[in-house]
């Protein structure tokens, strides 16, 4: 018995929760480094402060994948219990994040936020494979990417929108996150929980009996192994196509981690000439060399002129950061348009996933490389992030479509969770010093991190030559898994 094909709105509704997930990720990606800088973190330490995010994914996703494969709730089904749990925890973390008063608090909340987002996100990938026949999976993942693009664009623009349209200030005392960012995160929390609920209430999952009729029942022998044994055996018996896609993923996610962690300091300095001012240059210092505080726990400036100069430079930094976040949103808009075109095309025709992915990644790499050559010209970032968006749209759809057509459907959730190691490991390596070490081989300026991102994304594109599995490259019912 074959799974029935679903209509566009059915696929849209079952993927709509990704809007909220991406609100969380986009606010994190466009604003987290700004929060760290505001709280006093040094630029070179920012990638390490992000390490909680990939560590959470590395640990949480395989576990959630296994649990969601082996869960059936009478009302919520197989994947939806995890959508709901992740949404509740993520919304709480989003509300608290901008109220962090110390760097360690923000880093701890980032761990909670990313772990919570992963609880919701991983089952969404598996749900596409659960609900759709093989012939619609590229279509399904592309629709998912379309929604992700919408979320990225809107969420990245939220701090600027809140400041310019709602007239909520983007200025604050030294070491305090501006009110505009706090409101943006609160909106993100509301969108997260609401969009997840839309998917929960509009999407019916196939029951275990229906999955059995489709020939996709869970194997009892696999269940008896237990969670840890099953996860470890899946790592050991990883399909060849997953390993090859892992090489592509490694270079891709290293590049994007460099962007998320260092784009704000790199672009505010190189493009806007408005880096974060160092409070130590303007404040009175105590015996330990830290800014001195008055009785109200406020920073004591050297004089009124120093205070005015700091406020002027900090205002320029916050405005530049708002604009960097807004420009980063372009990659979400671009990925949305790219996904929309793929959605219409893949609804009727097969595509060569390998070459689509290769070309998209190379274009994104060129977008990163362009950034070095446009100092003082923020408008050219529209071109850079448009090209990066094409790569992003492909990263969020093509690898998963290739993988889902090439692995055991009985363990799709676990496979998607294990595949996540190729997302997390490169980010961990980048966080512990990889991206800073590599960009300093070129120069001390943070903009060189974007150059490294461009080089790695081009290498990711070329790595697609490793993919030779015919069923992974282009789905055709007559072609067996090679």
UniProtKB/TrEMBL annotation:
Transmembrane intervals: 12-36, 48-68, 80-97, 103-121, 141-159, 179-202, 245-263, 328-348, 355-374, 380-402, 414-441, 447-467
GO-annotated molecular function: transmembrane transporter activity
Protein name (database record): Maltose/moltooligosaccharide transporter
Keywords for the protein's UniProt record, in alphabetical order: Membrane, Transmembrane, Transmembrane helix, Transport
Positions in coiled-coil regions: none
GO (cellular component) term, any one: membrane
Subcellular location: Membrane
Transmembrane helix in keyword set: yes
SUPFAM superfamilies to which the protein is assigned, alphabetical: MFS general substrate transporter
Membrane topology per record: Multi-pass membrane protein
């Amino acid at each position: 018995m074959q799974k029935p094909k679903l209509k566009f709105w059915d696929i849209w509704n079952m993927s709509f929760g990704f809007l909220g997930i991406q609100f969380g990720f986009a606010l994190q990606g466009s604003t987290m480094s700004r929060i760290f800088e505001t709280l006093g973190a040094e630029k070179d330490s920012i990638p390490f402060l992000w390490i909680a995010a990939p560590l959470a994914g590395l640990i949480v996703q395989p576990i959630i994948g296994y649990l969601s494969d082996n869960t059936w709730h009478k009302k919520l089904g197989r994947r939806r219990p995890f959508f709901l749990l992740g949404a509740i925890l993520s919304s709480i973390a989003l509300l608290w994040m901008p109220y962090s008063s110390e760097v360690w608090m923000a880093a701890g909340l980032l761990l909670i936020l990313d772990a919570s987002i992963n609880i919701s996100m991983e089952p969404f990938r598996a749900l596409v494979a659960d609900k759709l026949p093989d012939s619609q999976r590229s279509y399904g993942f592309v629709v998912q990417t379309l929604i992700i693009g919408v979320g990225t664009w809107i969420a990245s623009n939220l701090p600027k929108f809140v400041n310019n349209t709602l007239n909520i200030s983007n200025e604050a005392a030294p070491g305090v996150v501006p009110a505009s960012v706090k409101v943006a995160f609160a909106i993100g929390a509301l969108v997260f929980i609401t969009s997840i609920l839309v998917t929960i209430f509009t999407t019916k999952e196939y029951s275990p009996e229906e999955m059995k009729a489709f020939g996709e029942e869970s194997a009892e022998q696999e269940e008896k192994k237990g969670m840890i044994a099953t996860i470890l055996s899946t790592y050991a018996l990883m399909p060849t196509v997953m390993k090859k896609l892992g090489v592509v993923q490694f270079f891709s996610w290293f590049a994007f981690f460099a962007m998320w962690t260092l784009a704000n300091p790199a672009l505010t300095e190189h493009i806007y000439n408005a880096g974060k001012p160092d409070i130590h240059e303007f404040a009175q210092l105590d015996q330990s060399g830290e800014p001195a505080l008055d009785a109200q726990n406020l920073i004591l400036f050297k004089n009124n002129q120093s205070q005015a100069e700091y406020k002027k430079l900090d205002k320029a930094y916050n405005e530049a950061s708002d604009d960097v976040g807004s420009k980063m949103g372009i990659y979400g808009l671009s990925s949305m348009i790219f996904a929309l075109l793929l959605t219409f095309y893949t609804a009727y025709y097969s595509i060569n996933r390998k070459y689509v992915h290769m070309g998209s990644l190379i274009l994104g790499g060129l977008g990163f490389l362009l950034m070095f050559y446009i100092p003082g010209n923020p408008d050219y970032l529209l071109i850079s992030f448009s090209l990066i968006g094409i790569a992003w749209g492909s990263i969020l759809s093509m690898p998963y479509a290739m993988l889902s057509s090439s692995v055991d459907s009985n363990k799709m959730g676990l496979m998607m969770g294990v595949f996540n190691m190729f997302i997390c490991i490169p980010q961990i390596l980048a966080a512990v010093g990889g991206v800073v070490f590599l960009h300093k081989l070129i120069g001390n300026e943070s903009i060189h991190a974007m150059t490294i991102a461009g080089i790695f994304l081009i290498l990711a594109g070329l790595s697609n030559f490793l993919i030779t599995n015919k069923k992974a490259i282009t789905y055709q019912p007559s072609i067996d898994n090679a």
